Amino acid sequence: MALYTDGTVPFLVDGEEFKTYYRIYGPLSDTSLPPLIALHGGPGIVSYYLSPLSKLFERNERQPVILYDQVGNGRSSHFPEKGAEFITIKLYVDELANLIHKLDLKEYHILGHSFGGCLGAEFEAERHPAGLKSLILTNTLVDMRLFYQSHAERLATFENAEELKQAFAKGASDPKAYREALNTFNERWSLRHFKERPLPDDIDPFVWLFGDEEKGIKGDRTVVDKMVEDKKWSIVGRIHLIKVPVLLITATDDMIQSYAAEPFFGRPRRSSGPTWSTRAICRFGRSRRTICGL
């Protein structure tokens, strides 16, 4: 039996068709265990770095795992001509609902990392899908203002903080400086416990942002540059709308500090939230034993 199956499903938006790429580990025909759908972060990166979650299926062949690239990213349809009014969190909520419908999933669990956690929480709060059994929210946040506060505090730990801040502010106008700043920042706050260099293909989430000529990948920053709504997103006043059980995972060394997600603790029913004090868990490679319980 093949380890995984790749495919696409059509996604219609106002009569325009896009394609959502997915990868399924394990057969969906065995319904004894609901599949786990993993939502990648960003917005604007891809699902490659979540591939270690496939260990769940490798250890239990009745446990399917579904990864997919959100439209505008990776192996899904791209739309560089679209503006900020098109690229919204509602677009991605609709895409997730469409994927679930096209794959004919009756029951499922969702794991959302970083922006994927925001997406998963938004999906439950706004849709209350009947098939959703639980949410796993890892290294995520309840309000973008808390994210920017956390990011500024993490940035301040660098001796060249002002230089990095200016590079982040330039963004698309100076992609080389932006990428160098991002790499520097991530080495300390996303990858400090992951020692392998260069990053394996299935761990590096940024190759589709900046491109890689040797691998024939053209970079596309459309989503990360144009998703303006994401900068104002908040679910603080709607946390009570989350009805399914929630597992919240944070760690003291993460890029997004724990306080940005802690409001989730008090409001969702039957939520639980471990915090690890010695490692960052925003990558799923080295610390997958912690995250997947393997």
UniProtKB/TrEMBL annotation:
<dbReference type="InterPro" id="IPR002410">
    <property type="entry name" value="Peptidase_S33"/>
</dbReference>
<dbReference type="InterPro" id="IPR000073">
    <property type="entry name" value="AB_hydrolase_1"/>
</dbReference>
<comment type="similarity">
    <text>Belongs to the peptidase S33 family.</text>
</comment>
<dbReference type="GO" id="GO:0006508">
    <property type="term" value="P:proteolysis"/>
</dbReference>
<dbReference type="InterPro" id="IPR029058">
    <property type="entry name" value="AB_hydrolase_fold"/>
</dbReference>
<dbReference type="GO" id="GO:0008233">
    <property type="term" value="F:peptidase activity"/>
</dbReference>
<dbReference type="InterPro" id="IPR050471">
    <property type="entry name" value="AB_hydrolase"/>
</dbReference>
<dbReference type="Pfam" id="PF00561">
    <property type="entry name" value="Abhydrolase_1"/>
</dbReference>
<keyword id="KW-0378">Hydrolase</keyword>
<feature type="domain" description="AB hydrolase-1">
    <location>
        <begin position="34"/>
        <end position="169"/>
    </location>
</feature>
<protein>
    <submittedName>
        <fullName>Proline iminopeptidase</fullName>
    </submittedName>
</protein>
